[in-house]
Structure to design on (776 residues):
């Protein structure tokens, strides 16, 4: 749906920001203006190479590395005031500083004085914060919400395996012989993934990464 | 009619019956450029007994022009895990509610009419979820666990969404396995039907992150699509019916993403603004060409049509229907500025619903075959786009190509415009009797340099020994290159038909390498597969980025 683009474009034109159509549309067209419309927030550029790197893993034939200085959360317009305020608190700053938008998620960088190292989901100030990874081939960010897709030899083993590893069974797809396990907050997804790979009841296991978001056309 | 409801807007809906009306925009359309539905409507074929899922941002299940068609209790909200996906967090329009109206708005005295006004609707707001529930929304769930939708009884999945990735991406392996299963098992083994929007990336990708802007200047300069249908890995599968958008003059909408993955085109419109309502003529003409009239989330305090724009209070509504200043949109429950390939896909979904009412036995492949066989050639004089490279002119976008099976194909339009009456007529009593779809493939390492700025590029051949009637051709390719935006990929069939699977000057300009990227082409439909297939890879730039064709594989889907 393209109409929001034109509305924004017209506002920019009226406000004297219009340079040329191509340049403006490249900048402003998007899936949702939620984050960019937050007060006291801004988007800035930083080289990924300057960020700390954490553990790495392979998923869907792509290689990912955790960026523990970054975290993400779902931005919904109705909550923007509370979210913005709480992010600022988390960052120990006056304002929430957006690192990048990613679908319905906002990605933020931990502020000065914050020691959190985001490699697992955490609940802070009623917000669920998810870890962020970098696809080393595409150089794009992804979000790990804590799901692991597992193809089982026998679907009847799903609950047993979940119990043994203290995982939640999020969804079972019998027709795919696949179960989605969801890790609990604080669990180490890398070691759990490795445990699943090593399990003889399992054909394959893959950490799910949200990298390319579907947006309305 | 309730005071809170609009007048009958059907006569303004140019996509149903184009009489040259403006649909509240400044410009008129061209008479006759519509979906040709009159005979089907007169026969009262209206989508009865067909379930269409709107897999989208939401669905206002109580909307006055939709509610009678919504399957009670069987939509799904992935946020609250209940059956009401009505948008309650975005005041600026609910995309899914507008998509739903194009498919199945009721045939009554208020608002517009859907293509299939008696089809049944389910809404799954997958796009607004954390996005790993796509399988549940696409037929992979029976709803028995109380935590997911009942999607496995849906006939048609409308997918007016896609990715805007700016480097090659691989389809999620779970989703790929599911889609292959669904076209073989759902609908009592006749197969689920997936209708997907091609994208709005002809001129720009719509990404707004400082980290992944697509570079479209070169494509725009030459009149080539910046985004390619094959860039979205879900689109680059043989199971999708990818839909491009047409404007009210019957030509490609300004934004409609092109590529060999397209199957068909349908009205999607332009922007629908009224120049006389406070807008300068300095804006592109497309701003003032008709858009699509459809349902909008109810109420004048929310939706695309409203008296107050919460986000952009200084901008006037697009036209006089949008704020009901013409008195035709009481309640602000309808919009006349909806557009995008998001609008075109539900037009096709609605058309397919009519085909399935006419013949519920159609398989997913029957549906694709009928659409291709009955599509109407549009913009017939378009001869493609030529670009000058160092050693001469290179045809970067082909015009209409007639293949050896007599199908016409164009990367801007697929097989052409949806032709409802012809499709429904053909559907009645049709059975292909093709049996199971089979495949044949071949692959090879190449490891050869792609010459820079050279129209002949590098070529390589693979031989398919199996004789199949082609339904789709997929090329998987690995290219090492420092600027994929330079790279074009062409394929020539044993019958001499050419198809451009990936165009030069594309929006992957800032990315490196294609890693087993899947590229689908529908241009060879109906041809025989046996013989030598020739791949050509072209570097369309003089920037000396350099690179090699490392490996490729061809897979024929057919019977």
């Amino acid at each position: 749906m393209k109409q929001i683009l034109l509305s924004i474009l017209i506002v920019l034109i009226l406000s004297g920001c219009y340079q040329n159509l191509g340049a403006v549309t490249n900048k402003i067209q998007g899936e949702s203006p939620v984050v960019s419309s937050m007060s006291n927030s801004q988007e800035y550029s930083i080289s990924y190479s300057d960020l700390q790197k954490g553990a790495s893993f392979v998923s869907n034939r792509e290689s990912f590395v955790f960026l523990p200085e970054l975290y993400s959360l779902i931005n919904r317009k109705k909550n923007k005031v509370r979210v913005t305020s709480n992010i600022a608190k988390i960052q120990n700053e006056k304002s929430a500083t957006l690192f990048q938008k990613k679908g319905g998620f906002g990605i933020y960088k931990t502020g000065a004085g914050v020691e959190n190292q985001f490699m697992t989901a955490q609940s802070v100030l009623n917000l669920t914060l998810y870890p962020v990874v970098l696809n080393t081939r595409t150089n794009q960010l992804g979000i790990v919400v804590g799901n692991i897709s597992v193809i089982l030899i026998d679907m009847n083993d799903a609950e047993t395996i979940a119990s043994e590893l203290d995982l939640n069974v999020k969804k079972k797809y019998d027709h795919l012989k696949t179960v989605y396990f969801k890790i609990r907050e604080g669990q180490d997804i890398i070691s759990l993934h490795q445990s699943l790979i090593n399990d003889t009841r399992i054909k394959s296991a893959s950490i799910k990464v949200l990298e390319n978001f579907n947006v309305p056309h | 009619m309730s005071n809170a409801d609009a007048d009958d807007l059907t006569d303004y809906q140019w996509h149903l019956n184009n009489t040259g009306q403006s649909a509240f925009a400044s410009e008129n359309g061209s008479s006759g450029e519509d979906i040709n539905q009159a005979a089907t409507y007169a026969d009262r074929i209206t989508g009865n007994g067909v379930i269409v899922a709107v897999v989208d941002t939401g669905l206002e299940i109580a909307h006055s022009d939709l509610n009678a068609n919504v399957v009670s209790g069987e939509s799904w909200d992935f946020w609250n895990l209940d059956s009401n996906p009505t948008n309650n967090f975005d005041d600026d329009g609910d995309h899914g509610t507008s998509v739903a109206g194009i498919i199945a708005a009721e045939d009554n005295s208020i608002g517009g009419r859907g293509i299939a006004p008696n089809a049944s609707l389910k809404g799954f707001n997958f796009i607004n979820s954390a996005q790993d529930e796509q399988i549940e929304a696409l037929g992979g769930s029976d709803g028995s666990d109380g935590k997911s939708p009942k999607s496995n009884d849906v006939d048609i999945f409308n997918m007016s969404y896609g990715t805007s990735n700016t480097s090659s991406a691989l389809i999620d392996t779970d989703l790929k396995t599911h889609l292959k299963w669904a076209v073989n098992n759902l609908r009592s083994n006749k197969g689920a039907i997936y209708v997907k929007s091609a994208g709005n990336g002809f001129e720009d990708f719509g990404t707004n992150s400082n980290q992944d802007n697509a570079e479209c200047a070169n494509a725009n300069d030459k009149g080539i699509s910046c985004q390619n249908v094959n860039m979205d890995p879900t689109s680059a599968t043989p199971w999708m019916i990818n839909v491009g958008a047409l404007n009210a003059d019957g030509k490609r909408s300004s934004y409609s993403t092109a590529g060999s993955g397209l199957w068909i085109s349908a009205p999607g419109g332009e922007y629908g603004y009224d120049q006389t309502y406070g807008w300068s003529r300095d804006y592109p003409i497309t701003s003032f060409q008709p858009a699509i009239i459809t349902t909008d989330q109810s109420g004048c305090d929310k939706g695309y049509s409203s008296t107050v724009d919460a986000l952009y209070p200084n901008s006037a509504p697009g036209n006089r229907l949008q704020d009901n200043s013409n008195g035709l949109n009481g309640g602000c429950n309808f919009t006349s500025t909806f557009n995008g390939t998001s609008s075109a896909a539900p037009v096709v979904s609605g058309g397919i619903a009519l085909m399935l009412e006419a013949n519920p036995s159609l398989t997913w492949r029957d549906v694709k075959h009928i659409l291709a066989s009955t599509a109407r050639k549009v913009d017939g004089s378009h001869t493609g786009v030529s670009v000058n490279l160092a050693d001469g002119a290179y045809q970067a976008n082909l015009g209409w190509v007639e293949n050896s099976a007599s199908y016409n194909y164009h990367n801007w339009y697929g097989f052409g415009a949806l032709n409802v009456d012809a499709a429904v007529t053909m559907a009645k009593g049709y059975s292909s009797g093709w049996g199971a779809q089979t495949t044949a493939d071949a692959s090879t390492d190449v490891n050869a340099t792609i010459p820079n700025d050279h129209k002949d590029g590098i070529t390589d051949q693979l031989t398919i020994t199996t004789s199949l009637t082609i339904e789709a051709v997929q090329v998987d390719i690995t290219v090492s290159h420092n600027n994929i935006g330079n790279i074009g990929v062409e394929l020539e069939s044993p019958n001499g038909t050419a198809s451009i699977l990936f165009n030069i000057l594309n929006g992957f300009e800032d990315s490196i390498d294609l890693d087993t990227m899947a590229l689908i082409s529908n241009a060879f439909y109906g041809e025989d597969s046996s013989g030598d297939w020739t791949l050509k890879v072209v570097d369309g730039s003089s920037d000396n980025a350099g690179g090699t064709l490392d490996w490729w594989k061809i897979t024929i889907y057919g019977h």
User: Anything to note?
Assistant: Helices of chain A lie at 3-14, 21-28, 80-91, 158-165, 189-198. The CA atoms of residues 1 and 216 of chain A lie 6 Å apart. Chain A touches chain B through 68 residues (CB under 8 Å). The two ends of chain A are 5 Å apart (CA to CA).
